From TrEMBL:
Residues 96-165, 241-327 form the E2F/DP family winged-helix DNA-binding domain. The gene is E2f8. GO terms for cellular component: RNA polymerase II transcription regulator complex. InterPro entries: E2F, E2F_WHTH_DNA-bd_dom, WH-like_DNA-bd_sf, WH_DNA-bd_sf. Residues 26-39 have a biased composition (Pro residues). One of its GO terms (biological process) is sprouting angiogenesis. This is Transcription factor E2F8. Residues 200-211, 552-561 have a biased composition (Basic and acidic residues). Belongs to the E2F/DP family. SMART domains: E2F_TDP (SM01372). Residues 562-571, 736-750, 796-817 have a biased composition (Polar residues). Residues 468-479, 725-735 have a biased composition (Low complexity). Keywords: Activator, Cell cycle, DNA-binding, Nucleus, Repressor, Transcription, Transcription regulation.
Amino acid sequence: LKTPLKQAATSQLVLTERQPDCQPLSTPPKPQDTPPAEPWTPTSNLKMLISAASPEIRSREQRKQLSDTSAEVLQAKHCLQEHLLGDEYEKSQPSRKEKSLGLLCHKFLARYPDYPSAAQKSYICLDEVTEELHVERRRIYDIVNVLESLHMVSRLARNRYIWHGRHNLPQTLQALKRVGEENKYIQQIQMIKKREYEHEFEPDGEKKEEMASSLGSSEQSEMPFVELPGVEFRAASVNGRKYKSLRVMSQKFVMLFLVSTPQIVSLEVAAKILIGEDQLEDLDKSKFKTKIRRLYDIANVLSSLKLIKKVHVTEERGRKPAFKWTGPEVLPNIQDTKLEATSTTCSSPISESIPSKEHCSKNLFPSKGKQNFTRHSSLIKLVKSIENDRRKIQSAPTSPVKISTSTYQSLPVFPSTIAQLPAITKPQLEGQSKTAEEMQMKCALPSAEAVPKAEPSEQPAPSQPLGVSPASHSSVSPVILPHPHSGVSYAIYLHPSQAHTVTTYSPGFMLQPLPCANVTGVKSNSSKVINKTTTEEGDNQIATAEPTKPLAAEERPEMKSETSSQRCLKRSQALQENNLIKRHRSDEESLGTSLTFFPSGYLIPLTHCTHGNKADCSNKEKAGMCSLQHPTYSSPVTGVIPMPASELKTVNIPAFHITPLNIMLSPNSIAAAPVLSNSCLNSSNASSAPNPSSSALNFMLQHIGLIPAGVQVPANPVLQHVPASSQAENSSHSSGNTNLQEGKVRTNTAPWPWWVEGEGQCSDSFTAGKPSAPKEPQEPQAVTENFFRTPGGPNSGFSLSATSEGPERTSQGTLNIPQRKLEVSED
DNA sequence: ATCTCCCGCCATATG
DNA sequence: CATATGGCGGGAGAT
């Protein structure tokens, strides 16, 4: 019986504490029995206590535990008791919530820096984690799987994962968004909603067929895991079809957010769509339930990552659980050109900006032997064309994707959904990029004076198992390693802050297209920035163990932007333009200084340089490449029209710049590091690609040509139309006038993780002040959701436009069906 | 009662 | 074969 359990919990812990040797708690709690090997040291007990008490304390203490004394233990105990007392007489500990995946995930995340520097690659050992976090292994898998879907971690081998942190996030999100668009999720969503709607009226409309057909057509039966250039799944082995669930489900779930306009997705809809993809119209109820369960699991993790937040949408039916995207905005996918630097932080600029197509590569080549997923710039082109073709095909009214069914694990021949190109391996880039100088620069820049902080004790200097790249890393890496959370990472975050000054136009964006350009004086700036950041943090910083945590940085932009967001629009653009110009100059200047961050994925070409002697070759080539690239990426960012090709050529960017970039680029993925040597020539498709530079050029040109003038102005057409939409939440300015619309959104802005909210116990020094903040903004906002936007008729192929163009297009053909009211309430 | 979602059995995959 | 992974769904807290 559970009841006894609860009460006993506390006492149990206490007891256990003093009996190091004895079998822990054999009493009520089952969990205890399980841990066989674990030596129940006072410390471990302490940990438990702490964890029970509050996350913050726990994580903080956890690290320091190395040399605890009995005194400490007692103290901890004390605290715990106090918490208990102060709180509620005993309704405490092992409550279900304390075991929630969300909380667990937080603990997990607390162990690693959001933006680990290249030097601090952390490895995750599941055994350690499970032990330290006191959880069943199974749970960790849940977390890791979701993280994997976001490319925040990747599996190395049994029991081993690498932590990438959020570096890849922007890239991933963009890729996901793109895939989501290609999958026409929007339509699917609308479909479902429409269906519901119809159901209301007609007792049992025979819409089935309609829906079935439409849905069926649009649904992709298969949708392999979306990969990123540098983060493929380790080992082809991992390719089994089983790679379906959590991982993929998670990605799909995220996609839904990214594509839907009010960025709110109800579980119900999500579940239906996800099911739909797996099997046609399966009205299986139990299946639905299961799906929902999984979605909750995923949602919990995503919530911990603060990518989404739980809300409730209230419609006619009643209120349904839903989630709202609170993560970084993802720039509108401008068709293939994806050059925009979506970077959140300068740290990752590079990675994110990699051309979209690349993102989309999937890992479908199971059977094919190892097949390095080396991506060639030349390939990109190819891919692109393929993609286009595919789209066209897909666009066919009927069932586009079906083909791919077989695709699942067979032929590379069929590019199933998106181009599954071998990706340029990030590692490669990394590998080459890592030059001693770079490293040094890096080190220097991020105030080496790390904050004195207890850090993950272990950090087992991993012996790089993998060949090439690792080696290079390691050799160089000795440097930094200050503190995971401190130094290096900071520099990175900072940029974004600067960024918004410039890029204000998109308020909620965490990842602004950063003004990479203006980053010139990194060093000096960095220090400044840091200060800034810290100050700002004060307000709503999460009471995590590490105050310094990057998270703060993320949130920053929002706040700032809020204040002046609107007017900034204009200005920002102007500024951006200026920046652009500046950038060029600065680039030159900064040669010595370095640390110029280049946003874009334009690095791709660089890859080629990989082969041969890293340094020299790369520089030369890079320089060339960069020149080409440079204009390209800049334009998207700024919203300016792409420069003429001629200019592209002319622009010379010193090789140096590149270097820095690279660093940032490849924060992670040691694993990959495929073949450095033959990367260029590599494999299959290479044939079509003559030489890198030329191909790159072509690529570029193509893009330019392809890019319609309108496209580049991301400015979110959607937002304009629907002011209150996604971003409405936090922006005070918007709230006022939004009332014209029908629905209401009650926003209860609570920055805190939901679980933290109610708990008085949590209030530690940190948390104490918190509660107050969240409450204030309870202003109702109006949001109207365009549920039924349909791009053309049911059969009209939206293919071309929709897919490639993104939002704008979609909205054009929009057919607004009765807008429904919906009320979104948080919590 | 409904919403959440933890727990852990057990099928698979991996080594 | 022993383990590591990870579907999956019962069923119990939380509301």
